[in-house]
Design brief:
Elements lengths: L1 H21 L12 H8 L2 H19 L3 H9 L5 H11 L2 H26 L3 H20 L5
Helix pairs in contact: 3-4, 3-7, 4-6, 5-6, 6-7
Length: about 150
């Protein structure tokens, strides 16, 4: 009697596995923001606006060729920029999320390039890196939904 029960249990398990694998529930990808999502993202807008003004201050330090303060500014007042951008990126719609993450990585790479070029006082490389960083940041800000 144990043999037919084992066989029956095995057949039921196979049947259940087959039925579960054949069923498909399509995940619906959101195409619009809910009011709660917009409210959550908008909490970061003042912080991002402050970071954008700090980027302008970094530009002033670069124009003055003040390399020590420029490097310190990147690590100090702009130190939390990457984390904030990653947090906001995670709250965006899937179609914008990957682009926002790519812009975050690119901006961070630009800041590293500025930092490394400031060590050797390479003005051309610093200004090119700064311009790329500003463009990346401005593009990122355009991905944020308006209230």
């Amino acid at each position: 009697m144990t043999r037919p029960r084992s066989f029956f249990a095995l057949m039921m398990a196979c049947l259940m596995a087959f039925l579960v694998s054949c069923s498909s529930v399509e995940a619906k990808v959101p195409t619009t923001y809910t009011a709660a999502q917009i409210q959550q993202i908008q909490r970061y807008v003042p912080t991002l606006t402050e970071f954008r003004s700090r980027m302008d201050n970094l530009g002033t330090l670069i124009q003055k060729k003040n390399w020590v303060d420029a490097k310190t500014y990147i690590h100090g007042p702009l130190g939390d920029l990457r984390g904030t951008m990653k947090t906001v990126s995670g709250s965006l719609l899937p179609k914008s999320q990957q682009q926002a993450l790519d812009l975050t990585k690119s901006l961070f790479a630009d800041l590293v390039e500025i930092d490394n070029a400031a060590k050797v006082a390479d003005y051309a490389k610093i200004t090119a890196g700064y311009q790329k960083a500003v463009n990346d940041f401005d593009t990122f800000l355009q991905l944020i939904p308006k209230a």
